[in-house]
Every structure is written in structure tokens, then in C-alpha cells.
Amino acid sequence: MRSIRIxxxxxxxxxxxxxxxxxxxxxxxxxxxxxxxxxxxxxxNIAPLxxxxxxxVIDEAGLDVSSxxxxxxxxxxxINEIAGMWNQMAEAGFTRTDIVIGLGGGVTTDMxxxxxxxxxxxxxxxxxxxxxxxxxDAAVGGKTGIDIPKGKNQVGAxxxxxxxxxxxxxxxxxxxxxxxEGMGEVTxxxxxxxxxxxxxxxxxxxxxxDELLEKIVAACVxxxxxxxxxxxxxxxxxxxxxxxxxxxxxxxxxxxxxxxHGICVAKGMGIIIDASVREGTLDKDxxxxxxxxxxxYKLPVTDEITPAQIAEGAMNDKKKRGSTLSVILVDKIxxxxxxxxxxxxxxxxxxx
Length: 352
Ligand SMILES: NC(=O)c1ccc[n+]([C@@H]2O[C@H](COP(=O)([O-])OP(=O)(O)OC[C@H]3O[C@@H](n4cnc5c(N)ncnc54)[C@H](O)[C@@H]3O)[C@@H](O)[C@H]2O)c1
Ligand SMILES: [Zn+2]
Fold this sequence. Notes:
- With about 350 residues, the chain is an alpha/beta fold.
- The chain folds into two domains: about 1-175, Rossmann fold (3-Layer(aba) Sandwich); about 175-350, Dehydroquinate synthase-like - alpha domain (Dehydroquinate synthase-like, alpha domain).
- The chain is about 45% helix and about 20% strand.
- The strands form three sheets. The protein has a seven-stranded mixed sheet, sandwiched between helices. A two-stranded antiparallel ribbon has the order 7-8. A two-stranded antiparallel sheet has the order 10-11.
- A hairpin with a 3-residue loop joins strand 1 (about 1-5) and strand 2 (about 10-15).
């Protein structure tokens, strides 16, 4: 099992490995020694697969364990479900030292984190991500939240977990297309900051063994850890994690959230890569290597959306600051740059 230390406003470990979840009981005792009660937050796809096993491990650690199971999917990421969690914890007499456990993909870890951040003004959360995307991104770094009708992730809190346990054995049951979505974020780390990861992904030729998977997940977590250490609250360098997202979010929103996030991010990266080549800030061969990697992992590299639609949509993004956008570009594999652009400049950049 690998252990990666996250040095944010709160320090914690991310444990990664096959069957890492078996250590959950001992780990709870270590990081939350005063916890008496635990609420497992999970959803209808995950519960039949993993809830009993996780409950048993926590029960054996001597905690009084209960669960809150919501309907799987982004539609559930709303305030009503959070209220359901608050009420259940209040009725069960949870105190400040009790804990929430997020068991599931990014939807679950975002919600479990937000419920924990807000209940009694903040109780401990332990994240146990089950999707590739949640392991490499959502469960690490302390961004929690929910959607409102006006937009995704519009309400939330920075709330670092007490611990993250990433059991790569869980990925065996992940549907193939959901795995592919996760690879959208994995390739993003390679492009923005990790040339070595790029080489590993390229060499593997698109097929990933269990051992390699663990290595890849760990590499992404190390990358994210480095960024969080530098810029926990997303005011500077953390923005490079948005590579492909400024465009991707617009495509995602335009589809009424029917197109999956990781797929939209891949399309967004492809669109930015092409524009950078036309602008002359990215070498053509380097761009081809990046797009080949995306294709190797069955990810799309373009979309029929127009530059005008992208520029318009991007101005409504919550990540926007004032009247300028921070657009993330890559000038060579492993190096990202943040460029401030007005809507007009962004439109021009996309239309070159
Ligand atoms: N907080 C952050 O920093 C951050 C970063 C990136 C994404 N996110 C959020 O994460 C969410 C997307 O995450 P996601 O793609 O994991 O979505 P998700 O939680 O909906 O999971 C995707 C699908 O995979 C299923 N699934 C997950 N693990 C499984 C397993 N082991 N076996 C079988 N099925 C499994 C789920 O039931 C679901 O149907 C979005 O809401 C996004 O906003 C948050
Ligand atoms: Zn993303």
C-alpha cells in the first residue's frame, strides 16, 4: 500500500492500494480516535457492491455505523439529499467528534464532504472513492459541494478530509465508459505537469494492468498534492487543474449535462491544443502526441461547438474572475501556463 501525505491547512494521508479499504477500521481509530458514530454516505450503484463490506470493517473497529443511500447520479447532488444526511445525523445524536464516510464516485465524495463540512459547523470526513475520477481528483484536495439549478458545484466549501482510502480493487466493477471518463483527468495531469506519467501512459499502449493502475493513481495524487500544498484555495497554481475545463464545462452545460464530464474535458483539451498550435505557442508534433494519447484511451479530441458558443458560455463559468478568464494552456507536455484573456481575446484565440 502506498501512502501519500497531503500538506494542506490540515495534513492527511491518502492510502492507495488493492484492498486498502480493509485498513479502514484501524485507520479510523488512528485519525479519529474519539469517534463513536459513523455515517456512510453512498448511492444505489455502490451500496449493493461495497456497503456491507465497509460497514463490517467499521463495525469491527467498534463504531456505531449507519448509512445514507441516495439514488446514483449527478441529479442527486442537491441540497435535499444534504438535508437528509444532516437530519439523519441529528436524529442519531452525532456530536462534533463523530464522522462521515464518503463511499462512491465524485458525486458521493463531494456530497459527503459538504454534509460533513456543514453539520455542527464541521465534522470529520473520510473519503473512500470508488471511481477513477474520484481517486485521482474529487476525493483529494478538500473541494466539496452540490449543484443548484443555475449551475454545477455552485454551492460548497473547502473542507479537507481526515483521511482518504483508495482501494484500487473497487475499479474492477467500474463500467468501461466511466473508466474512460476518469482517464480524461489522468491524461490532464500528464499534460499539465507530469511528463513521466505521459511516458508511462504512452508506453502502456492503452491497456492498463492492475499494478500499473495503482502506479497511475498514485502519480496523479502526488501531482495534485503538490498543487494543493502551493495553492489550497484555488487562487493561483491550482487553476492549472482546469486545463480543458473552461471549454469542457461549456460543452457539458450545453448538453444539459448528458455528456460526461471527463469526455467534455478531453474535448476541451483537444480544442485548446489545436488553437495553441494555430497560435504558434505549441509545437505541432507535441500537439499530435497529446491528441494521440487521448485517442489511445478512447477519448474524443474535438466537438462541433463553435468558438462563439465557447466564449459566450465561458463567461458564465463560476471560475471566471471579474471580466477576464484564466485560460490554461500547455506549451509542452508537462508544462501548463495560465493566461488571462477577455471574452474577445478568448474568442480570437479560438478562431485563429
Ligand atoms: N471536488 C473536486 O475537486 C472534484 C473534482 C472533479 C470532479 N468532481 C465531481 O465529481 C463528480 C463526477 O465524479 P464521478 O465521475 O466519479 O461520478 P459518479 O460519482 O456519478 O460516478 C460515476 C458512475 O460510476 C458509478 N461507480 C462509481 N464507482 C463504481 C464502482 N467501483 N463500481 C461500479 N460503479 C461505480 C457510479 O454509480 C456512477 O454511476 C462530479 O459531480 C464532479 O463535479 C469534484
Ligand atoms: Zn474535471
